[in-house]
Amino acid sequence: IDSVLCDPVLAQFFEHQAYFLMEYDPTRDELTFYDFLQKKRETLPGYLNSAFPARAQILAEDRWQMRALLTGELHGPLELRFLAKDGSILYREVDAHPVPDGQVYVGYAKDITAQNARVQELLQQAHHDSLTQLYNNRTGKELISRYLQDKDPYASCGMLVIDLDFFKNVNDRYGHLFGDKVLQELARLLRTLFRPSDILVRAGGDEFVVFLKD
Which residues, 6+ apart, have CB-to-CB distance to 172 below 8 Å? Predict the structure, then answer.
């Protein structure tokens, strides 16, 4: 903390990261948040009671993790989901440890919503064709192989290999931008015709694969 107070660059970093320090007192069942300057921001009494205070804002499915963290049953850092005032979901990295005397837990909560969104964006780009947003060839092969390895040997499945006839003529006559629109429209059509569980792949160029499970 002292180094943060003396370093304006670090101070700006913590402020930008929505970084909060926290202290939990088990004897009072009270959780207190501080900003990076150790200024008290909020105190939540009765924090680990059966219902959790409404202001805690942790999604119900994740509350058990916070409870386990503040009772020493689970070790962090944890990624928890919080409900924002506008109804959106925020992601925060949370960790806490008991101090040597064991009377209180101290830790931090850091907003990682933007970081998670960027990770999801990169995963989307890695697994999907950038033009049609269908699975790319590599990911399509992996998903199909995984399904075939794990499926019931008596379950049926099917595969369609589709290509657009005379697609080169479309590009030559109307241009590649128009050709891109044709591919995007075909991808949209495939999504409406097949189930979400089916695997839709742009294998390359004007070639597509549809793998139908079960």
Answer: none
pLDDT at 102: 64
C-alpha to C-alpha distance for 121 and 115, rounded to whole angstroms: 10
What is the model's pLDDT at position 16?
A: 46
The whole-angstrom separation of Cα 75 and Cα 65 is: 9
Contacts of 10 (CB under 8 A, 6+ apart): 3, 4
Structure tokens at 28: 């009072």
- CA 185 to CA 32: how far, in whole Å? 53
Can you tell me the distance from the alpha carbon of 50 to that of 169, in angstroms, rounded to the nearest whole number? 67
Q: Which phi and psi (to 5°) does residue 25 adopt? A: -105, 105
Sign of CA dihedral 35, 37, 47, 105: positive
Strand partners, 34: 21, 40
Q: Could you report the average pLDDT of every consecutive run of 10 residues in the chain (214 residues)?
A: 42 54 88 79 78 64 87 88 82 88 83 79 80 94 94 93 93 94 96 96 95 94
Residue 143 structure tokens: 């998903």
* Residue (of 139, 137, 115) closest to 127 by Cα position: 139
CB within 8 Å of 156: residues ≥ 6 apart: 214
CB 5 within 8 A of CB 12: no
Strand 207-212 and strand 199-204: pairing? antiparallel
Cis, peptide link before residue 77, omega less than 30° from 0: yes
Query: What single string gives the DSSP state of each residue in 59-82?
Result: -GGGHHHHHHHTTTSS-S-EEEEE
